[in-house]
Structures are given as C-alpha cells and as structure tokens.
Design a protein that fits this description.
The protein is α+β, with helices and mostly antiparallel strands. Helices cover 19% and strands 31% of the residues. The protein has three helices and eight strands. The strands form two sheets. The chain has a five-stranded antiparallel beta sheet. A hairpin with a 5-residue loop joins strand 5 and strand 6. The longest helix is centred in the C-terminal third of the chain and has 17 residues.
C-alpha cells in the first residue's frame, strides 16, 4: 500500500503492519537522512473519507521513542516529501503509536503511517509548522535597505503564512481549487 524513499537508497515497499490501521518503515542510519518521501503504491487506495498521517520516530538519548507528526498522504495527495534533518533533536507530539510495542534500535528511526479520517487529518498540525519563527527571523535578518531591490515586510509574509495555515486547517485541499 505504501512506499518510502530516501535519497541514495533503494525504495522501500516492505512496510510492517503493526496494527490494522498502522504501518511502519525502518530507517537505518537515520542521522544521515535529510529528506524522506512517503507515497502510496497505487495498488490499494484509502477507504472513502480516509487518509494517512505520517510520523517520524527517532530514539532520544535514553532510547525512548520520540514521535513527530510530519504531514499526511491521501488518495488525492498520494505522495509527500518531508524534511527530517532538523527534527532529530526536537520534542515529540501526540501520536497514535504510543500503546504499541514497536522495537526501537539506537541508530534506526521509523516512519509511521496511521490511517485516519480526513476530518482528523485536517485538524492536525505538523511539527514542521514551528518554522514560522525561523522564516520570520530570516526575513528580518535579510531586510537591509537597498534602493535597487524590492522587499516584502516580514509582517506581510507572516500574515500570509498564518492565513495559509488557517485555510489548510479548515480544508487541506483548498489549494487545488
């Protein structure tokens, strides 16, 4: 049903089904991974009204699994690229894999896919949304006056991003119309 791709590695299609609605890929040597692609194989679609939340899991310094929401895939959006390089030291978030005893090795991370209702997917906020402050601080640092260049004020970019997040929360497919 799912595939996983890391640059420079073979495509993984042998997903482990750990529950009726939960799937996991192992990512060996995860410290060297910057991006991961999760996609549907096209053989089995999601049931009507369903999609898959995509999570990244890595062991913290004590070996405890830390799960972070990356985003989602659906029948209408069957693939997604996620940047995970900056997430390997962050805090975990709410996730549906908590009660499961999935083996975790020190240098192996996991990509988890949880099949859920589309309404629930629309309410979730991926951990990557915390980059707003990074975008804001970057644009402020780059705002050096130069009469020959046009600049967009940081508050305009921030307001656009907040509106985009709000609309995405209300309807994850608004950008397709």
């Amino acid at each position: 049903m799912f595939g996983c791709l890391v640059a420079g590695r073979l495509v993984q299609t042998a997903v482990q089904q750990v529950a009726e609605d939960k799937f996991v890929f192992d990512l060996a040597d995860y410290e060297s991974i910057n991006h991961v692609v999760v996609f549907m194989l096209g053989t089995v679609p999601f049931p009507e009204g369903m999609g898959g939340s995509v999570y990244f899991c890595f062991p913290d310094e004590n070996g405890v699994a830390v799960w972070q929401l990356l985003g989602f895939v659906t029948n209408e959006k069957p693939s997604a690229i996620f940047k995970i390089s900056g997430l390997k030291s962050g805090k975990g978030s709410q996730h549906p894999f908590g009660a499961m005893n999935i083996p975790q090795m020190p240098s192996v991370a996991q990509i988890g896919i949880s099949v859920e209702r589309l309404e629930l997917l629309a309410q979730q906020t991926p951990v990557a949304s915390a980059t707003v402050s990074s975008v804001n601080s970057f644009t402020e640092a780059q705002m050096t006056p130069n009469p020959s260049e046009a600049f967009i004020p940081a508050n305009v970019v921030l307001k656009w991003y907040e509106n985009f997040q709000r609309r995405l929360t209300q309807n994850p497919f608004f950008w397709k119309t």
